[in-house]
UniProtKB/TrEMBL annotation, chains A, B:
It comes from the Eukaryota. The keyword Repeat applies. Belongs to the chloride channel (TC 2.A.49) family. This is Chloride channel protein. Residues 1-23 are annotated as: Disordered. The chain crosses the membrane at residues 70-91, 119-140, 170-188, 231-254, 266-288, 318-342, 354-377, 434-459, 471-491. It is found in: Membrane. It holds the Pfam family Voltage_CLC.
Length: 738, 738
């Protein structure tokens, strides 16, 4: 019964592959009763080992570390750019072969009159591509599904989604996104780039791959959550940068989603990674296109050239922008609501990998059919010019020397379709056909997001926006762009970063004001109905995601009410047996344990003197760092920080560590390994104050103490995440207990 | 002896105007022994009054507050844009009259042969303008001198520079900057806009002006440091946005300098203020230029149109960018070093307002002379075309129908000169003249920055960069732009925000990569020699400015070593006499006092139970919130949060409050007013950890406690600011004791 949703969309199939039973209950909403994902520790454990290492390090040593950080960021940017380039070329080649084959077939059957055969060919080709992608995702690495943006948001927020930054995930993601875009689904290849960049960053910065069992013995210093997060921020930024040619937008994305603490050097490094990434992509694409050194395509997406003379907007156009923003907000909310119900349906009924693959193939076939119908029923012909830029002009029923103009938009990858919608001359599309298309594509896109394929939602959103923009008779490409922005903003609800991303993607700063205006309106209007798409999916996983601030009306809640209590505390010198028992206790899986000076017999709480993590205890147990009872000689093996770093991040479970009965009687001295100065708050601290501390410092555990510094409780991320503002004021969510 | 530097450049003339004796001592460096400016409290004091108010507030109430915040940000943007517009028009008009008069005079005397009279006229006009500006700054409000960027950096960092955000400062600043730009100094009007925006924000958000003694009784909720800082961030961003037409750059500037904690809604509001500001400026300028609604000049600065076809850069140009960046770094460092010595000279010898005004007038006259010489010795004539865009073509010794091309660059405001340097055709300038000019202008600009006039350093830096770029035979305007960027970056060392500002000012995203490259190189090279200009000036004031991180090698320092001790603690119920004595003690001016459960007689520290601020105590004393000793009836007047807000931010000094001998025997109950949950750390906490807490939460006081929660010390901002990395590792600065 447990773990349904988690398995289906994110972490997928662990050891319990066969147990995927549908979760049926009578409630209105699906209740998720499952393990909460682990959390990350962005507050450094400053134990004695760490402090000693830092003290030994010279000023020069810190400078070398800094240089190494820059090198890593450069590498992250380079590899992310390379991956983006690979995806782009692969998609172009595969889609090219596909459209070439279908075009030949159509040309053949236009004369003969058996166009349904062409349709079937198209649909089968699409389904085949999608099948490969879906099989890889569903059977090999389910976490590679979707755009990966919600997962990266969670990671940067401090929630550890299992396997989200592994090499295998990256491979499946890249393969999956190539298949789904080549398979003609209503998806983009931009969102997955963000996830890819993050995986690259997590891999490169650790200097090893646990999947490949290869340790390069470099960058060992960076094997901890704090450093890793910084690099993952850079990777995500590099991904955005490669996807949209938007280095500044990438930095802002990372900051908006992840970095709660802004640091100038870090930001500058992230920017460097972004710049290198877009530069690498640009450079290799220029070689591929046979014009080496001509750096003209900074991102995967290309909106085409906007003539800068018609960019100028006038004062009276501002209400128009606001109206479009509102419309985008409403349509985006509609998109999100339908997708929400669909996702719940999927969680309940479509959780077997086979079913998931079949659904994806069905969507692929339907998408081909809709596109085919669009082209078939359009009878708008344009003359074939010499400077024809169309790659696959379809003649169909047009006279010789002419081609079907509708095909320029829909016999193409979604990105090229967006460009056609922006730039095609007035009168290209029949309003009725366009209306039908907008509607059909809207529902196709809703249906597609959440399929078990790697795919992004940016491009389809832009396409829908541009389509309804054109439907309303808007032909100026700057205004069409704002329509597209409105639709995208209504769905994802990103703010500053999205503005900058779109401005950078178009290459013209003048669009800033209208884009900001529509995005702001879309967000305000959309938020009235439902949250953004990513937030919905994060919420459906019920992970302990921390928002920016505590709910405004939560001042009356104090740490006393919020904290978990009683807390399992350990003594400074603790019996091995007790530690093993505490760690093995499956009913209460704690990850951090306050260390107290002494726990007295009469259950009185002890005075706090440190905090130790489960992962640290496991390493200690594994290395058998025991002091024999009643033995004065120092039998304790000297453990080094290196031992902890080697075990990071995949610490073995407690069950895998064998502790003999004799050893259980030994003692363990935690003094050297615990964090001697954990952050503490008194019991009367208000929730917003606790929240601010958590968010600003990236905490995982916060010890609540009484007046005499005795441990009375422990606040963890999930204690804070369960409060949110609902319709009737403050509500408490039912997050699963770990 | 005390207060020299502070008086001279920043806070100026208090009551002790006559005491400005030069500070002469035998040390290599000037030592500043003076009062440290007050600090701001960005950690909210969550006392009972505050919590009660928050609890009373409904969800709707919070929403109204949020809407009010948006309205204020809109107002800030609007007013900042309006001020920018006013400055622009005033400068254009005044400079126009001046150049017109000089041109007529030159034309007259070119024939007659008495051009020295023209030179004298020009120099006198310049000096006159500058005199008015300098008198206003030197005698009325010295803090309005310079660009104001270091002061705003300090404010956002948490250092309270006196009178920095007052209305009077704004008026003098605006008047001063008009005078200095119209007076032909080597200054820009962009930097002061940032200060102006910040003052507007601080004024509008408080809903009153203490200078004008006008209280609009609105926005009372925002009368505290936390809220005010957020608005000042928005104001600074709006200022950048108006100055450079760079709304995103403005947001990044504010974040880079100020906001240690990134909040999505706050960022979005700041962006809104920026957008409104550039839009307002644009709109009013379009009306002024007679083309209402044509929004084509987003900022004060205008680099002219860059043809987008020649924007493309090639791979082999990258080493060129790096070389230029390095050169910019070296020249920028040279600029900073000379300016540093000059500033020290000024602090020692030029501290009387009269001298300051005279120096400013001298510089104005010299600037005019240099420009005149440039034009006089150039004999490069260009034909007057029909599409002539020059406003004041000087014929001088050219044939009829021709004009002196050197005058297009130097018979003009610095901004127009930058544009001429970027866009004038090859061969316009004689290399020797250009070389002499570059050198002369470099030293003029160094000399000018730090004068007692309101003036920015952005434009002169860009001008110097463009000049040496042209000198090296670079003619492509994109490359010239990067030269200019390199010089500017070498001087101010801003990173991401400057990149974005310059990209937005040119209007073309493609410049991003080269600009980033040169700025990064310039920063790395420049930092090797000396800090950035703003940091130098901040350091010369020895204010407790907190950088991003603790010095890297400071892990061996603990809170125990860093903290101030012993601490003056107050009891929960304290005798009025003692409070008055503590506050009146001039030898140790503390601003925050831990409140303890009981201070025992034998000097044993008490258990912490709260923290109360000097300002709160003063309000309590002023309202005589006393409990009569041995009296059970509640004579304590019910004080409200409103009383504290009314007193904010100019709390009266303790000397102004009269407490009678009888009242001294009364008691004061602090329970309701103290912050009951101040942040505390144990004594063993390392400096980086304390630093992170301070920086992330914007703290002013951090209580250090022992194992039993007894107060043993207090860490304040200056305890942290005094450690920095010098040549031989960690050094301790001698900051004055407050």
């Amino acid at each position: 019964m447990a773990n349904i949703a988690k398995k289906v969309s994110w972490s997928g199939r662990g050891d319990d592959r066969g147990e995927r039973t549908p979760l049926l209950n009578g409630d209105e909403e699906v209740k998720y009763n499952r393990q909460v994902p682990d959390t990350l520790d962005y507050d450094n454990s400053e134990n004695q080992l760490f402090l000693e290492e830092e003290r030994r390090m010279s000023h020069m040593g810190f400078r070398c570390l800094e240089i190494r950080r820059w090198v890593i960021c450069g590498l992250i940017g380079f590899l992310t750019g390379l991956i983006a380039c690979m995806i782009d070329i692969a998609v172009e080649k595969l889609a090219g072969y596909k459209y070439f084959a279908v075009k030949l077939n159509i040309e053949k059957y236009t004369e003969l009159g058996g166009l349904s055969i062409s349709l079937i060919l198209w649909a089968v080709l699409n389904s085949a591509f999608v099948m490969f992608g879906a099989i890889a995702v569903a059977f090999v690495e389910p976490i590679a599904a979707g755009s990966g943006i919600p997962q990266i948001k969670c990671f940067l927020n401090g929630v550890k989604i299992p396997r989200v930054v592994r090499l295998k995930t990256l491979v499946i993601k890249v393969f999956g996104v190539i298949c789904s875009v080549a398979g003609g689904l209503a998806v983009g290849k931009e969102g997955p780039m963000i996830h890819s960049g993050a995986v690259v960053a997590a891999g490169v910065s650790q200097g090893r791959s646990t999947s490949l069992k290869k340790d390069f013995k470099i960058f060992e210093y960076f094997r901890r959550d704090t450093e890793k997060r910084d690099f993952v921020s850079a990777g995500a930024a590099a991904g955005v940068s490669a996807a949209f040619g938007a280095p500044v937008g990438g930095v802002l994305f990372s900051l908006e989603e992840g970095a709660s603490f802004w640091n100038q050097m870090l930001t500058w490094r992230i920017f460097f990674a972004s710049m290198v990434s877009t530069f690498t992509l640009n450079f290799f694409l220029s070689i591929y296109h046979g014009k080496p050194g001509e750096l003209s395509s900074p991102g995967l997406i290309n909106f085409g050239r906007f003539d800068s003379d018609i960019v100028q907007y006038n004062l009276y156009e501002i209400p128009l922008f606001i109206i479009m923003g509102a419309l985008g907000g409403v349509l985006g909310a509609l998109f999100n609501i339908i997708n929400y119900w669909l996702t719940i349906f999927r969680i309940r009924y479509i959780h077997r990998p086979c079913l998931q693959v079949m659904e994806a193939m069905l969507v692929a076939a339907v998408t081909a059919t809709v596109s085919f119908a669009m082209i078939y029923f359009s009878n708008d012909c344009q003359p074939l010019g010499q400077d024809n830029t169309e790659e696959y002009p379809l003649q169909l029923f047009c006279a010789d020397g002419e081609y079907n103009s509708m095909a320029t938009a829909f016999f193409n990858t979604p990105e090229r379709s967006v460009r056609s919608l922006f730039h095609n001359p007035p009168g290209t599309y029949n309003p009725v056909t366009l209306g039908v298309f907008t509607l059909a594509y809207f529902f196709l896109a809703v249906w597609t997001y959440g399929l078990t394929v790697s795919a992004g939602v940016f491009i389809p959103s832009l396409l829908i926006g541009a389509a309804w923009g054109r439907l309303f008779g808007i032909l100026l490409c700057i205004v069409l762009l704002t329509c597209a922005a409105a639709q995208l903003g209504g769905i994802v609800r990103m703010t500053l970063s999205l503005t900058v991303i779109l401005v950078e993607a178009t290459g013209n700063v003048t669009y800033g004001f209208p884009i900001m205006l529509v995005l702001m309106t879309a967000k305000i209007v959309g938020d009235y109905f439902i949250e953004g798409l990513y937030d919905i999916h994060i919420k459906l996983q019920s992970v302990p995601f921390l928002h920016w601030d505590a709910p405004p009306t939560s001042h009356w809640l104090t740490a006393r009410e919020v904290m978990s209590s009683p807390v399992t505390c350990l003594n400074r010198v603790e019996k091995v047996g007790r530690i093993v028992d505490v760690l093995s206790n499956t009913s209460t899986i704690h990850n951090g344990f306050p260390v107290v000076a002494h726990t007295s017999e009469n259950d009185e709480p002890g005075i706090i003197c440190g905090l130790i993590l489960r992962s640290q205890l496991i390493v200690l147990l594994k290395h058998k760092v025991f002091v024999e009872r009643a033995s004065s000689r120092l039998s304790q093996r000297k453990l080094q920080l290196k031992d902890f770093r080697d075990a990071y991040p995949r610490f073995p479970p407690i069950q895998s560590i064998h502790v003999s009965q004799d050893e259980r009687e030994c003692m363990m001295d935690l003094t050297e390994f615990m964090n001697p100065t954990p952050y503490t708050v008194p019991q009367e601290t208000s929730l917003p104050r606790v929240f601010k501390l958590f968010r600003a410092l990236g905490l995982r555990h916060l010890v609540v103490v009484d007046n005499e510094n005795r441990v009375v409780g422990l606040v963890t991320r999930k204690d804070l995440a369960r409060y949110h503002v609902g319709k009737d004021g403050l509500e408490e969510l039912h997050l699963a207990q770990t």
